[in-house]
Each structure stands twice: as C-alpha cells, then as structure tokens.
Predict the 3D structure of the following.
Amino acid sequence: MNQPLLITIYLWASLAVALMIIIENGLLRRHGGRLPNTPVLMVISMVTSIWGFVVPAAMYFLPIDGLMRAVPVAYIVYVFATLVYSFRLVRGKDLPDDPNDIIMPSAYMNFCQSFGIVYLLLCAVVLAWHYGIIHLPL
C-alpha cells in the first residue's frame, strides 16, 4: 500500500479512536463509574488498548511529520498520563477482587473525557488540513 493512503487511514482511525474514548467515558458515567459488562465497552477497550501499540509503529513506519505528528504524540502522552494517573489512584489502596466492584473516580473520567474531546478536535483539524480544507501557517 502507498504511504499517503496509509497516513489518511491512520488519521481517520485516530478520529474513530477519539470517538471511542468519548463513548467509553459516557458508558462509565451512565453506570456510576462502574465498568459495565457490555460488548460495546469490551470492543472499545480492546481497540483503544491496541491503538497504544499501533501509534508508535505508525510513527516509525510512516512519514508522519509536521502538524500530523501531533496526533500520535498526543495519544502517546495520553497513554503514559493515564498509566501514571491510574497508579497514583490505586497506590496504597486495597483493590476489590471483582473488577465490577471498582468505581472510577469522576476526576479520572473527566480527564479521559477531556482528552477524548481534545483528541477528536485535533484529529478533525489535522484531517481538514490534510485534505486542504483549512490552511494553517506552519
């Protein structure tokens, strides 16, 4: 496959991942911070987790430069920030044996929801720039 097409697919897939993050947090909020046992959430969790491995590979194998580089860099920062945030939340606490008993704090959900919205906007702007719809002085 040619690289410009792969970059376009990557950008659209990033936008889809941003939507999934927003949906995931909406489901968490609807269930009071508890992880609902639904196929939708399982698929979203799997895709967003796998995306954490796809992003560095895309940065390595695809010629992503300029403004487009902000998309993978933002996701990598998000992955590391959520890991650090998660470890800080559980440090020194007894975790329940059943994952269904875990309640996500609203601050954590706000953080993830905010990232999802910002990442969605970033992907939309980069796609618009990629297609020549908007012109940014870079």
In short: DSSP finds four helices and no strands in the chain. The mean pLDDT is 91.
